[in-house]
Design goal:
The protein is mainly α and 238 residues long. The chain has two domains: 54 residues, Arc Repressor Mutant, subunit A (Orthogonal Bundle), CATH 1.10.10.60; 137 residues, Tetracycline Repressor, domain 2 (Orthogonal Bundle). It contains twelve helices and no strands. Helix 2 packs across helix 5, helix 8 crosses helix 9 and helix 9 runs antiparallel to helix 12. The protein is flat. InterPro entries: Homeodomain-like_sf, HTH-type_TetR-like_transc_reg, HTH_TetR, Repressor_TetR_C, Tet_transcr_reg_TetR-rel_C_sf. Keywords: DNA-binding, Transcription, Transcription regulation.
Length: 238
């Protein structure tokens, strides 16, 4: 009898907790994407009823927030000794990898903004890094918003390439077909750029775009650091 009870106890699912719910939710996001996350699919993964999940999370919106909080909490910040542009380059690459691993995360950030604590930490660290390089607080905040809006959009744009099944048409094929159908003499911009767009590797495209963004930020830093030197009065000869 004792042996049968012990065997039955081993088959029971682990005691449900909020931490276990969030952990399972993050795994589901990694496997299926944030849009597919629901209380029912999570309950099925945990081997419990949806009502058991509701005891730890009130609704799906709350579940999404907890999952996003946990995912963003895995971001490892670059070394503080790096200059701002190098620091942002490393951070952008890490956020990109995280976003591609958790589809739908970038859509959430674009729609909702930095609403969870871990995203606010990223905002704070970024603004402080830029301010430390001479950028005023207000401008540093604006640079953060511009940079991370671009980053989220760039990662979101790459998602179809990462999830498309073999044998399916490449992403944006309708765009390419529509652009190439127009007469080249009337649309020379399209005629010269679309072939390069079609042939561009998405990873290389990301790095090129990242370079453009960081070049602009470096210019703002240079302007701010140059301004005090221009304002210094010339010393009079003794």
């Amino acid at each position: 009898m004792l042996r049968r009870m012990t065997s039955a106890a081993r088959k029971r699912p682990p005691r449900l907790s909020r931490d276990l719910v969030v952990e399972a939710a993050v795994v589901l996001v990694r496997e299926q994407g944030l849009r597919q996350l629901s209380m029912r699919t999570l309950a099925e993964r945990l081997g419990v009823t949806p009502m058991a999940v509701y005891k730890h999370v009130e609704h799906r919106d709350g579940l999404v927030l907890l999952a996003v909080e946990a995912i963003l909490g895995t971001v490892v910040f670059p070394e503080e000794r790096l200059d701002p542009v190098s620091w942002l380059r490393v951070l952008a690459r890490r956020v990109r990898a995280m976003g591609l691993e958790h589809r739908g995360l970038m859509d959430f950030l674009l729609d909702e903004g930095p609403t969870v604590h871990t995203s606010l930490v990223i905002l704070d660290r970024t603004v402080r890094k830029l301010h430390g390089a001479g950028i005023p607080w207000k401008e540093a905040g604006a640079l953060h918003n511009t940079f991370f809006s671009w980053l989220a959009g760039a990662v979101r744009r790459q998602e179809p390439w990462d999830v498309s099944a073999q044998g399916t048409p490449p992403p944006f094929e309708k765009f390419f077909a529509a652009a190439e159908a127009l007469p080249a003499k009337d649309y020379p911009g399209l005629a010269h750029s679309v072939p390069h767009m079609r042939a561009t590797d998405v990873g290389k495209e990301f790095e090129a775009s990242l370079g453009f963004m960081l070049e602009g930020i470096q210019r703002r830093i240079d302007v701010r650091q140059e301004a005090p030197r221009k304002k210094r009065p010339r010393s009079r000869p003794g």
